[in-house]
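Let's do one together. I've listed all components of the complex below, 642 residues spread over two lines.
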Amino acid sequence: MTLHDVVDALNAHQRFLVTTHQNPDGDAVGSLLAMAHLLRAELDKYVVAVLPDPVAKRYRFLPGLNTLVLPRIAGKQGPFDALVTLDVSSPTRIGGVNDLIKPGMTRINIDHHVTNPRSDDVCWVNTEASATSEMVVDIYRELGAIPTPDVATALYTGILTDTGQFAFPSTTAKTLHAAAELVEQGAAHEQVALETYRKTEAKNVRALGQVISRMQLFDDDSFAISWVSHDELDVDHEGFVNTMLDIDTVEIAALIRPLDSGQWKLSMRSAGMVDVAELAKNVAGGGHPLAAGGTLKAADINSALASVTEMCLKALTSARG
Amino acid sequence: MTLHDVVDALNAHQRFLVTTHQNPDGDAVGSLLAMAHLLRAELDKYVVAVLPDPVAKRYRFLPGLNTLVLPRIAGKQGPFDALVTLDVSSPTRIGGVNDLIKPGMTRINIDHHVTNPRSDDVCWVNTEASATSEMVVDIYRELGAIPTPDVATALYTGILTDTGQFAFPSTTAKTLHAAAELVEQGAAHEQVALETYRKTEAKNVRALGQVISRMQLFDDDSFAISWVSHDELDVDHEGFVNTMLDIDTVEIAALIRPLDSGQWKLSMRSAGMVDVAELAKNVAGGGHPLAAGGTLKAADINSALASVTEMCLKALTSARG
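Okay, and this is what the predicted structure of the assembly comes out as:
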């Protein structure tokens, strides 16, 4: 199924529930805002846009966020004859929005994830798109609709964050042309980059300093490991493991943080030599070859560090043959 | 003078010395490599491409770097009938290349800096361009030349680094369209982002951890200050002050590092409320409203920290009126 099937399905229905995945990221919120606007303002539909979870702080600058509701509110605003899910790679990923789906509603899915099972009534899954927001740009173009500056800002946010500032291999010439069009249409590109990639809280910067200070390097600096302490658990530690991977000699970076009762969460990143998704199987986890994680048991942080270090050094030795 | 005057001047000469500014950045090296290739391979000219200074480590991945020479070598390869300077905002910024300029050589300047005095024989200064590399893309297009993948990589590097990964206000729709074309032409965009914005040495990451750990916040976290120690002077501290400015409450970030004999170098960044170029006048320095620096005298790091803190807190109080 293609873009045209989705456009036909959008035209064919009147009362839309529009949503995205749990823990919504920039692409989820950006594509949701843009689709809700398209249906409401360009196609003159009744639209309720619902978020399964609240939006993370770094996306709160997005204009129009106050038009999104949580499932409890959306439930009172039905009935709906269609559900549009954006950036949702599996029907299980919409959390509390599932309870709002009634028999007879047409399910329309727009997504770019390779793992999408294409199980909805109408699906358009374009795995060549860098972001679902890039696909929504195509839908606007197909319908002859021009994004408002606010919508352009939302779509630019989706593309910028899903491509890691145009750095991931998923970035294509088409991605950059789409971004250029959005800037022409008034996307606040400077603000988007500042809010999503730079601004952070003091406690996050302080914790980064501590995590780096605790970093240990092994095996000619090819393995880096550090940990987040109990009193740093409220910080945004998302980028910390990548900071260790940025070291030019590092092949595997690992970050450990405490869970409850002797359990530890492990995040791993690989520069390419080792498939860390394979390694993650040893710790009841999984992921991608270059980014994976899992959970391990250990009496204290030192034994957690020791067992992860042993596992990773073995993998490096064996990868070198 | 315009693009056409530059193209005419390139066509009218045969033996070119091509250069860029001292301490060459990504745009300097990228535009230099692309112009040298254009003259040599597309216009069939004799070309010596000379760098006033060696290239920083993060740009050493650039293909074709071994075709660039230092002034000592270039001097033996003349005579030349034209000098092309790229990204050079003032004739004083080409260091040892000045000694190679002989009477009768036509000076051609291609640049995007607002401060350019336009004093060369032929100048094209486009202050709307995000990078000199973006202007070189225009020259290729004007001449009907298509960048090779290596040249596309060089030009993409220039644009990416001069726009802070497409984040600075100088980024326009034209910039992003140019980047898209370069990706179409084979620019190794993923590698460029990795080499220029991520890869770093272990010592730099360790020093960042130390500098953050020493960070002090004042005045409801609106002023952040830290310092680089004597044994960290060999690290690449370029981004450290920006990391402090990234804190959402910070209005001024300041970083001090030791010079010789009781002198200290101060770098300041502003989020907008205070003009730090004005502040820098107090410490024999200057710069831009949002990024400035200077030098101060102090007996030890603690008195240097104290005097900078006093100056910045006063400026914040007065800015708040």
